[in-house]
Amino acid sequence: MKIVHNNGEQKGAFIALEGEKEMGEMTYTWVGKSKFIIDHTGVNDEFKGQGVGKALVMSAVEYARKNDLKIMPLCPFAAGLFKQNKELQDLVF
Q1: Which of 8, 13, 79, 83 lies at a C-alpha separation of 20 to 30 Å from 30?
Q2: Residue 10 and residue 31: Cα distance in Å, rounded?
Q3: How far apart are CA 72 and CA 39, in angstroms?
Q4: pLDDT score for 19
Q5: Other beta carbons less than 10 A from residue 75's beta carbon
Q6: pLDDT digit string (tens) for 41-76?
Q7: Could you give the strand order of the β-sheet that contains 11-18, starting from the edge strand earlier in sequence?
Q8: pTM exceeds 0.70 for this model
Q9: Cα dihedral sign for 31, 74, 83, 66?
Q10: How many CA atoms lie within 13 A of 85 on its CB side?
Q11: 15-37: average pLDDT
């Protein structure tokens, strides 16, 4: 699995790929320059249960840590991961 990050001025996405096939996508919206909201995480049916969603959210976590950013996990899937993992709490705004 390869994860590609597309970052725009107002919105961005992390996309999981297997070859040329899209496995899933996690989208976010910027809130200022130092915070973003994870608003959707979706995995294509044939790839469900393979850890794709978690890999996408953790890619966003890695990006936030490297760039001193904060995250608001509004998407139910991301919110669940943040709730389960105490080590992610420092990123939440």
Answers
A1: 83
A2: 8
A3: 9
A4: 96
A5: 20
A6: 999 999 999 999 999 999 999 999 999 999 999 999
A7: 2-7, 11-18, 21-31, 35-43, 70-73
A8: yes
A9: negative
A10: 16
A11: 97
- Bin 49: left if φ > 0, else alpha if -120 < ψ < 50, else beta: left
**Region for 18 from its dihedrals, namely left if φ exceeds 0, alpha if ψ lies in -120 to 50, beta otherwise:** beta
> Residue 77 corresponds to which tokens in the numbers above?
């899937």
CA–CA dist 50, 89 (Å, integer): 24
The angle at the Cα of 73, spanning 68 to 75, to the nearest 5 degrees, equals: 145
- H/E stretch holding 22 reads strand 21-31
What the block records as the tokens of 76 is: 């139910």
Q: Which residue has the tokens 């320059």?
A: 33
* pLDDT tens readout for residues 35-44: 999 999 999 9
H helices within 1-93, ranges in order?
Answer: 52-66, 76-84
- The pLDDT assigned to 16 comes to 98
Radius of gyration, alpha carbons of the chain: 12
Determine the Cα–Cα distance for residues 93 and 4; give it in Å rounded to an integer.
Answer: 25
